[in-house]
Inverse folding.
């Protein structure tokens, strides 16, 4: 029994590592910068969402917290904090809403992806418009955004969320029948 | 002898902790992005003296500590990343200004991209060198051969290192191969020719879009399936390694 529990734990650690690596690659390779804020558009969210849908909120949270934040460390260190919190929350919420979606799977997954997109948009807006300017008073390192920049980033973030959700939905439809995953 | 060291780097398994600490210390200013800029004056907009010094410091350190192979690999990685980050970003900014979507001038944006490019050329090589310094395979061999059992933390390390090595050395090349094959398939059966004699010309655009979406989904699904392929097997295998506790309990019996 103890061995079985340990196998399951190790399996989840492996899954978290794999998805974190995938979201890191997805975030690093496809990066379209947003000139107004110095941030960038990417499709790494797809893997966070898929991990959350397939393996639940804990895996989703860990993948969102680790993968995209590591990608931010390469070239955009100011955004590590915001990314870790926002994407972690996104994975957690998507996983919570989408889990146990046996009967009304399509509805639940669609709703969870919509919620995930909203969290990306709202989360980054809150960080860039409020939290970073407050932090910048004490730590100039965070002085990269303000309210105007946050507003300018609303559209790219929405686009990023919607595209990632669509991709995640497509991949989930292909993978949902596979019992060995 | 000296040249051999530069090509292979400082012998990988010897003093890896010392090398790791040296690289970690050097990578700190680059990753925090703070000290590099705070104590230096600008050479040109977006570029400071410290940026240049740091850039050379990183290159020399990576060359000496990790070797030429890692340095060349990291330069290729930077080139790949900067295509989208720096050049596409610069192009988008330029087009926005050209079309009148932005009130700012080109010279207001250009320092951002200059500093971003220099930062990527410093940060990516040092990050790759730090990861490459850890002798993962050797450590894995030591753990698997150990007769005194493996702790829970070491099991986690084993799992993480296996999955990461698998993604880096197997999954990524496989995906590149899949993308190449998709490209060949696209060349061999172009949508245009397929539909040339078709009466359903109105569906041409739809088919083209469907094919692109199908290709993206294929790559995404392949990425996930390839990465997760051996995880259940490895979880079973690693969980069956003797634990420290089991070893202590069987200390008087036959060793594993």
């Amino acid at each position: 029994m103890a061995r079985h529990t340990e196998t399951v734990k190790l399996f989840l650690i492996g899954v978290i590592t794999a998805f974190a690596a995938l979201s890191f690659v997805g975030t690093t390779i496809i990066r379209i910068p947003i000139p107004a804020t110095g941030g960038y558009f990417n499709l790494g969210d797809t893997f966070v969402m898929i991990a959350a849908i397939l393996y639940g909120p804990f895996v989703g949270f860990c993948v969102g917290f680790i993968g995209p934040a590591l990608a931010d460390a390469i070239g955009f260190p100011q955004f590590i904090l915001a990314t870790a919190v926002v994407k972690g929350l996104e994975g957690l919420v998507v996983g919570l809403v989408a889990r146990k979606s046996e009967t009304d799977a399509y509805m639940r997954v669609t709703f969870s992806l919509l919620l995930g997109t909203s969290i990306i948009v709202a989360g980054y807006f809150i960080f860039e418009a409020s939290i970073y300017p407050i932090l910048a008073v004490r730590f100039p390192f965070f002085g990269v955004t303000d309210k105007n920049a946050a507003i300018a980033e609303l559209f790219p973030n929405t686009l990023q969320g919607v595209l990632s959700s669509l991709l995640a939905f497509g991949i989930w439809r292909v993978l949902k029948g596979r019992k060995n995953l | 002898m000296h040249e051999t060291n530069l090509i292979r780097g400082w012998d990988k398994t010897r003093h890896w902790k010392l090398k790791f600490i040296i690289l970690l210390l050097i990578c700190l200013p680059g990753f925090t992005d703070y000290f590099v800029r705070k104590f230096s004056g600008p050479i040109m907009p977006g570029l400071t003296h410290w940026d240049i010094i740091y850039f050379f410091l990183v290159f020399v350190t990576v060359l000496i500590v990790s070797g030429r192979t890692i340095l060349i690999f990291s330069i290729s990685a930077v080139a790949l990343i900067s295509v989208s980050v720096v050049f596409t970003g610069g192009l988008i900014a330029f087009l926005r200004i050209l079309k009148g979507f932005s009130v700012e001038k080109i010279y207001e944006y250009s320092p951002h991209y200059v500093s971003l490019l220099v930062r990527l050329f410093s940060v990516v090589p040092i990050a790759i060198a730090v990861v490459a310094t850890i002798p993962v395979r050797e450590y894995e061999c030591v753990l698997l051969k150990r007769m005194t059992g493996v702790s829970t933390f070491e099991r986690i390390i084993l799992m993480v290192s296996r999955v990461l090595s698998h993604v880096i050395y197997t999954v990524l090349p496989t995906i590149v191969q899949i993308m190449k094959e998709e490209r060949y398939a696209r060349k061999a059966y172009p949508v245009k020719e397929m539909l040339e004699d078709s009466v359903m010309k109105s569906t041409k655009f739809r088919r083209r879009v469907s094919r692109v979406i199908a290709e993206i989904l294929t790559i995404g699904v392949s990425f996930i399936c390839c990465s997760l392929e051996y995880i259940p097997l490895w979880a079973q295998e690693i969980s069956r390694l003797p634990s420290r506790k089991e070893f202590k309990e069987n200390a008087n019996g036959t060793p594993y």
